[in-house]
Amino acid sequence: MQPPVVTLTLNRYRGFRNKFWAFQMMQFAHRYLKNINGLTFYKLMGTGSGNGFKISADFSTYALLTVWENEQQADDFLHNGKLHKLYRKRGIEQFTVYMHPIKSHGMWSKQNPFKPEADIPGDYTAVITRATIATRHLIRFWSYVPGTSKSLEKYDGLIYAKGVGEWPVKQMATFSLWKDEKSMLAYAYKNQDHMRVVKKTRELNWYAEELFARFRPFKSEGTWGGEKLLPF
């Protein structure tokens, strides 16, 4: 049995009309994602400004996360699906990474959508962390974020990181892409700013729902910032 295929697509837009269209598609794109063969889970998400994890919104960039039964279904949606054709027509740049889930714990919309397989060999690693922040903890949570986000920049093994989310401020996630698992683990378990947030999360029960997932990228299409982020 094949492991699930997870894709994350970033779309970039220029000009007010196209950015406003992309913003509206956070609501209207659902119609293009219903009853698609092999699609088991999806999320339409906005993004935070810059790289890393920031509270301010980036209205030029939007993300689509999808989970498929197999690679062929993901390919067909990316190349032939009406939604991606609209994204490419309106946007100026698109990047998609294909991944197999290798570890996942927690819940996203009351389910764990990734159904990870046994570890798949490889160096390149992607991580998605996602949480619904309890309303009473919003201010305190966001006071810790700038230090954690800035500390990401110190890691040579980091290829790219972006804050994404279904709703600003409250339902947030991060996507990060690493050259190797060693670099990712050094950030996760040795970075003091990150560890401080993890400790506070456990002490204060910040999250109403949370999920941490690790992936093995195996294919990519498109560029980001004019560059190909992965060699495959």
Task: Describe what you observe in this structure.
Helix 2 (71-80) crosses helix 3. An 8-stranded antiparallel beta barrel has the order 1-3-2-6-7-5-8-4. It contains 6 helices and 8 strands. The chain has 232 residues and is α+β, with helices and mostly antiparallel strands. A hairpin with an 8-residue loop joins strand 2 and strand 3. The chain has one domain (5-222): Alpha-Beta Plaits (2-Layer Sandwich). The longest helix has 14 residues, at 138-151. Its EC number is 1.14.15.9.
Fraction of residues in helices?
25-40%
The overall strand count is 8
Strand content: 35-45%
The CATH topology corresponds to Alpha-Beta Plaits
**Count of domain modules:** 1
Level-1 CATH class name? Alpha Beta
Instruction: Flag low-confidence runs.
Output: none
Number of contiguous helices: 6
Structural class: alpha+beta
* Strand/helix succession: EHEEHHEEHEEHHE
Question: Which labels suit this protein?
Answer:
232 residues; alpha+beta; Alpha-Beta Plaits; eight-stranded antiparallel barrel; 6 helices
Give a nutshell description of this structure.
It is built from six helices and eight strands; from the N terminus they run βαββααββαββααβ. By secondary structure, it is of the alpha+beta class.
Break the fold down into its secondary structure elements and pairings.
Blueprint: E1 5-12, H1 16-28, E2 39-48, E3 57-68, H2 71-80, H3 82-90, E4 93-106, E5 125-133, H4 138-151, E6 158-167, E7 171-178, H5 181-190, H6 192-204, E8 207-222
Antiparallel strand pairs: 1-3, 1-4, 2-3, 2-6, 4-8, 5-7, 5-8, 6-7
Helix pairs in contact: 2-3
